[in-house]
Amino acid sequence: MPKIISPQVEFSYLLSQVQRVTPEILTPDGQFLNLMEGRWQEPGQPRNFTSPVDGTSLGALPMLGHETGLRAVIFAKQEAAAWAATDLDERKSRVQNCLNQLREQVDLVGKLLIWEIGKTYKLGFTDIIRLLKACNGTWIISRGCWASASPWVW
């Protein structure tokens, strides 16, 4: 029996939405970039990844070599010190802004989770909503903290 996929959850459609919302995360030819040193760069060595749902090729992850990865870690350590020195109200504002932007993309991120990690339609949305509820008005906001939970959390 051939698979039937709703046009609203076709991966190519979702990827076009990602490109519309965050064009900076892709090279002109559509390869993913790494967020490093405060900007999207370093396409790295592409490594194909497939969906656990049906083995569909979803593209290529931008794998970094040792030296580039080390450079990223060193910069992140320096950035962490600068973040810690940032005024608490400013950190809260920035974290809240990030959560607000993520909230606007709940539908897209939930659908991407179907393809990327095999979540069901309902669980994909539940996980994103739970993340937003857990972060909003809690310790994370009160302290201006943020931890990236997924490569799709832009």
Automatic annotation (TrEMBL):
GO terms for molecular function: oxidoreductase activity. Pfam families: Aldedh. InterPro entries: Ald_DH/histidinol_DH, Ald_DH_N, Aldehyde_DH_dom. Coiled coil: none annotated. Residues 47-134 form the Aldehyde dehydrogenase domain. Keywords: Oxidoreductase. It comes from Hymenobacter roseosalivarius DSM 11622. It comes from the Bacteria. This is Aldehyde dehydrogenase family protein.
